[in-house]
Amino acid sequence: ADICFTSTVLPEMIVDISTHSRVISYMGCLTQMSFFLMFACMDAMLLTVMAYDRFLAICHPLHYAIIMNPRLCVLLLLLCVFISLLDSQLHNLVALQFTCFKDVEIANFFCHPSQLLRLSCYDTLIKSLVTYLVGAILGFFPMLGILFSYCKIVSSILKISSSGGRCKAFSTCSSHLSVVCLFYGTAIGVYLGSSVSYSPRKGMVLSLMYTVVT
Question: Alpha-carbon distance 208 to 113, whole Å?
Fold first, then answer.
């Protein structure tokens, strides 16, 4: 999912830099946006599932193998794929309704969905509804799940008597937690920030953080 997610943005960016051309066709833009959203959403959903996995491993170690069985893993994976496809197609359906744009220049190095919404001549209320609805479903609720998992994890880790045991338990979460902070922090900032006030320079730096660095 990470490789596919980065591959929707990075090759086009490299070609743009090498050819000094920043032009993309409308269909090319929609295609890039569709795949970008699908894999970005899948990444977000999988990070949430991983938080749940760590919660079970640390807080309920004796029941872990029973709860997190192969059947549940497959079901969670299919759910991630389904939500990702739904989100991608929702954005595409909205984007295909656009008949006019205030400008043809996107203030980013790829076809960012919030930027495409921002440039359309659509009613501001509709654009805000789409932005915040998707932001809540894919940003707010998964983050709540991750925060809840980590509150329980920290509570369980603090109950461990040995310092070595605490370090070992926390080390299993540190890499996941750092990626969650970097991915969600920058992605939500760019996506929701575009509907309020947008700085192209800051937007591109933040986009680079969650599309390439993570």
Answer: 15
Which of 183, 179, 173, 180 is closest to 208 using CA atoms? Answer: 183
Ramachandran bin of 113, using left for φ above 0, alpha for ψ from -120 to 50, beta for the remaining angles: alpha
Q: Is the dihedral of CA 61, 63, 69, 72 positive or negative?
A: negative
The alpha helices in 97-162, defined as continuous H runs, are 113-119, 124-135, 141-158
205 CA to centre of own chain:
16
Contact predicate 137/37, CB 8 Å: no
Kindly report which listed range (18-32, 102-116, 183-197) carries the lowest average pLDDT score.
183-197
CB count within 10 Å of CB 11 equals: 10
- The predicted pLDDT at position 58 comes to 87
pLDDT tens-digit readout, 22-42: 888 888 888 898 898 899 889
Chain segment 66-86, per-residue pLDDT in tens = 999 999 999 999 999 998 898
Q: CB under 8 Å, gap of 24 or more: what pairs does 71-79 form?
A: 76/49, 77/49, 79/45
Residues 56, 173 contacting (CB under 8 angstroms)? no
Q: What is the DSSP letter of 120?
A: B
The number of C-alpha atoms within 13 Å of 206 and in the hemisphere containing its C-beta is: 20
- CATH assignment of 1-213? 1.20.1070.10
CA distance 60 to 132: 35
Give the whole-angstrom CA distance, residue 185 versus residue 210.
9
